[in-house]
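Researcher: Going back to the complex we discussed earlier. I've cleaned up the inputs and rechecked each line, so this should be the final set. Can you rerun the prediction on the complete assembly and write out the structure?
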Amino acid sequence: MVSKLNPVLVSSLLAIFCGLMLMWFAHTFPPLSKVAADEVGVLLSYPERPAFELRALVQAAGSWVRERRGLQERNRRLEMENLDLRTALQHAGVAPPASTSELIGARVTLRYPDAWWKEVRVNRGASHGVAVGAPALSDGFMIGRVVRVGSDYSWIELVTSSTFLLAAVVNDTWDLGVINGDDMGNVWLMFTPPDKEFSRGMLVSTALVGDYLPPGIPVGMIWGEGERRDGFLPRRIASGAHLTQLYNVQILSLGAGY
Amino acid sequence: MTAFVMAWLLQDLLQVLSMGFMLMPEIYLMTALYKIVSGPLLPTRAAAWIWLAFFGGVLWDLRWAAFPGMSGLIGAVSVILLYLMWNRTPAGGRNAPLFAALAGGTHIMSGIVHYLAWAVPSHAAARMFLIQQLLCVPLLAVLCTMYAFRKNDAHV
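Model: Rerun complete. Updated structure for the full complex:
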């Protein structure tokens, strides 16, 4: 009986030991396990390609009418805004700058259930012009920032991540704050003065703080207040993008000016 | 082996299609469990399936989970438990309902461990867990039917 069970016993003990060691290794050296995960992702991207294409086709077919109407409305709004800005520049006697930026369309290929509000992987990387630090957008709103780039993939840290920090400004009042997530799907504008009145729906955009991110990219709208902490009152931000169902994103490839 | 690889790829492709909506049931693990009970209960064969389930799980973690090793461990433990219980059951008692109960039990156990490992247990996560368990029912029904037919033919 014992000799009959031996291969099973040995394999069982070894497999359990290897499993525990792997978990310990992944916990102790997260960057290395991420490298391994990226390699597996690249390897599997070939057999998975038809499934991704089919998925994109079904999604496009399903939301064609709704998205088209939304895009037309957004396009009309942007054209009007563009016209107003050009008029303002002409009045100021400033020549409109030539844009060197480019929006790179990317598809979400991985979103871990256990890191749902932290990061996503997309199918565009350095070979497509994606660089670390580039802002990622969805529906015209910033949803995160590129934190790691491979040749044909990149990882985007979401605005809902607790490690995400971004200087932002309330467009109507010019008050500065820091965008930060809480890993629970919420986005907060931190370090805003408690006595300041903000109306619900006020637009919050990226601020001109560093030279790595252009100012004026919308992040979301002020939606409520949090609990007072350290003399500040965090404001809850409603993202303009659908962060729960994030399937396609655009990555802003910054031109020579950045 | 081929069936296991095909099952793994099927689960992977279905997960790509349903990413963000639902979690697929553990097709490759259920296939490994079915393969254990549908063939001769040789220890060397069982050992091979322990490793296959382990490596299948590790690969799954590297593709779909942020914490590699857990699915591999769960896969290996599931095969070990099923083998031990199946081996201790008298030949007359080895039937499709027993397989369904054991395989279903390991599937629920695997789902619960993954659910608890998620950083943010939420309504969405609970719904995903529930859908995954419900989707396992038709899969188990197919495997049990296959087992019943095979048992009739080969008297395993």
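Model: Worth noting: The two ends of chain B are 19 Å apart (CA to CA).
Researcher: Good, that matches what I expected from the previous run.
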